[in-house]
């Protein structure tokens, strides 16, 4: 049975081109630097985002935490949004791995106030204060919002005033670039390091990249080994990553268009509230509380009809489009929801 996967774009399966590339990949021990396919990926990837070097990591969370671990001294402070992925969905890893304190600021659609960032920086030496070692941004945001280049630029320049590096959680940075209609380097020029995923909308089975200066990546490579991220014949994964970056980045706009269509059709169902302005990439968030239908039950009913979804989180449902969700699937998804809700009412 074919399932329509709406839980996340992390659940995408590799394309046939990726499977073929993985099968044919030339590999070697990557810890020794002997894997030619991994070397190719780590040479190709940083050029896309305007950085000097890059490093393959097992996951986005691993990449973000590796960046904090590499940039920061233990006991220092990191400034970032209170609702960003590093804070909300990375299991408190910053306190365990990097040993840092997270100084969270309220955001407006993921955007921190540059003036508030400036005020939060620990600029004076004081026996009571931790030192600000890093500022983090996220684009696109975990809720599907895309930060403006203006906001990113203001925060980056504020950080540079105090000689503080900036890390970008760019798990879906190519989605953000597609939405803004710019080359991804117009986004990544406002950060010193960036993590971006190969295994989300780009369909690679495993992995993310961490990119930055050569010095930063050299240090991060040793930190990656410490964290247990030194892989051996990793070229099988790198082969899929190369296909992801070369073939899949340019088609992300299709997922965005399908998300908009899905949002438009969901909004027509009585009791469903969709904020269409929030559909900026491939994520559709909606409120179905007025229908009175339990979201956990909806998960079960959708599964019976060949659709995988997650229950609500924070009062919101989230459907995520991806390469394997085709335009013709949108009608089936909406009709299935209508059928379930209508049968519940009758």
UniProtKB/TrEMBL annotation:
GO molecular function term, any single one: lyase activity
Cofactor(s) it depends on: pyridoxal 5'-phosphate
Its EC number(s): 4.1.2.48
Xref: SUPFAM superfamilies: PLP-dependent transferases
Pfam families linked: Beta_elim_lyase (PF01212)
Domain (Aromatic amino acid beta-eliminating lyase/threonine aldolase): residue spans on this chain: 5-287
Sorted UniProt keywords: Lyase, Pyridoxal phosphate
Listed InterPro entries: ArAA_b-elim_lyase/Thr_aldolase, Low_specificity_L-TA-like, PyrdxlP-dep_Trfase, PyrdxlP-dep_Trfase_major, PyrdxlP-dep_Trfase_small
Family listed: Belongs to the threonine aldolase family.
Full protein name: Low-specificity L-threonine aldolase
Species whose genome carries this gene: Clostridium moutaii
Annotated gene: ltaE
């Amino acid at each position: 049975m074919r399932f329509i996967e709406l839980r996340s774009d992390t659940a995408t399966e590799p394309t046939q081109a990726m499977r073929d590339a993985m099968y044919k990949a030339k590999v070697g021990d990557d810890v020794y630097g002997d894997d030619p396919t991994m070397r190719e990926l780590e040479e190709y990837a940083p050029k896309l985002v305007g950085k000097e070097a890059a490093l393959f990591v097992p996951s986005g969370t691993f990449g973000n935490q590796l960046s904090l671990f590499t940039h920061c001294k233990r006991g220092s402070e990191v400034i970032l949004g209170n609702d960003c992925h590093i804070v909300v969905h990375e299991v408190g890893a910053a306190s365990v791995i990097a040993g840092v304190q997270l100084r969270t600021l309220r955001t407006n659609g993921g955007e921190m106030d540059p003036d508030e960032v400036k005020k939060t920086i620990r600029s004076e030496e004081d026996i009571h204060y931790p030192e600000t070692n890093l500022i983090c941004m996220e684009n696109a945001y975990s809720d599907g919002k895309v930060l403006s280049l203006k906001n990113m630029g203001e925060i980056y320049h504020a950080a540079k005033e105090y000689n503080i590096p900036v890390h970008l959680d760019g798990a879906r940075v190519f989605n953000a670039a597609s939405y803004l209609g710019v080359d991804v380097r117009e986004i990544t020029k406002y950060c010193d390091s960036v993590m971006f995923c190969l295994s989300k909308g780009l369909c690679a089975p495993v992995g993310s990249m961490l990119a930055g200066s050569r010095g930063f990546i050299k240090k991060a490579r040793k930190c990656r080994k410490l964290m247990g991220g030194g892989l051996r014949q990793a070229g099988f994964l790198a082969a899929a990553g190369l296909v992801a970056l070369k073939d899949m980045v340019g088609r992300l706009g299709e997922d965005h268009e399908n998300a908009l269509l899905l949002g438009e059709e969901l909004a027509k169902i009585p009791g469903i509230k969709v904020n269409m302005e929030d559909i900026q990439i491939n994520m559709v968030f909606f409120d179905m509380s007025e229908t009175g239908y339990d979201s956990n039950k909806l998960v079960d009913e959708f599964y019976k009809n060949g659709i995988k979804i997650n229950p609500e989180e924070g009062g919101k449902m989230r459907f995520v489009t991806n390469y394997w969700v085709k335009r013709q699937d949108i009608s089936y998804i909406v009709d299935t929801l209508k059928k379930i809700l209508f049968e519940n009412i009758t």
